[in-house]
Amino acid sequence: xxxxxxxxxxxxxxxxxxxxxxxxxxxxxxxxxxxxxxxxxxxxxxxxxxxxxxxxxxxxxxxxxxxxxxxxxxxxxxxxxxxxxxxxxxxxxxxxxxxxxxxxxxxxxxxxxxxxxxxxxxxxxxxxxxxxxx
Length: 134
Hints:
Elements: E1 11-14, E2 23-30, E3 34-37, E4 40-43, E5 47-48, H1 54-59, E6 63-64, E7 73-75, E8 80-84, E9 87-91, E10 97-101, H2 104-115, H3 123-128
Antiparallel strand pairs: 1-2, 1-5, 2-3, 3-4, 6-7, 7-8, 8-9, 9-10
């Protein structure tokens, strides 16, 4: 993980040497070599990206196309995307790709860059997911 890829509010799984499974946490502060999450500083090497799933897309406000129920095309008020094994490919109404993203923090950052707004994400919901990690 590289420091410039991170923003306050990004979600990651935090892997601890003392725990078998990691916990999902939100970045609250960014230092020079560490990030702060829920009362503790974490090394960048301990951040595990959260892969985007259909469940996450639906939770954060995307909806599946009504006329393409058997596809993996979703939309929000600003753009559309296609979910596949490689992540999410965002595109506009003219069908030109904006940028492919694979992880939740990348989608959070791109959404903010394009709209100036944060994705509406319920922290407790994300923590409760049985997620796939990268």
